[in-house]
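Human: If only I could read C-alpha cells as easily as an amino acid sequence. Underneath my words sits a plain record pairing an amino acid chain with its C-alpha cells. Take your time, and here it is.
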Amino acid sequence: ECVDYMKNREDIHLSFDIDAIDPFFAPHTGTAVTGGLTFRESNYICEALFASQKLTSMELVEVDPSQHKGIDPVQTIDVALTLIGSAMGKQIL
C-alpha cells in the first residue's frame, strides 16, 4: 500500500528514527521500545525506497552510543550504517 502511494511522488525524503527498530536489533537509542521493527523490515524499507529511484535524501536519527552502559554500541552503529547503505543501493544478500 505504501509503495503504491509513493508511485506518484517525485522526490522522497526518508527520516528514519532508529528507535522504531526493536531494541533487540538496535539497543542504543534514546527511546528503546520492545516490539518495534525487525532489522529485516527496516532494511526492506530502505531497499524499496532505493529501488523506487525516488529517494533523494535520508536522515537517520536517535543513534545514541552513550545509552545503556555495559552493552556494546557496535550493534546499533552497524545497523544504522547498513540501513544507510541499503538506502544508497547496497544489498545485504
Notes: The chain has a mean pLDDT of 91. The longest strand covers residues 55-61.
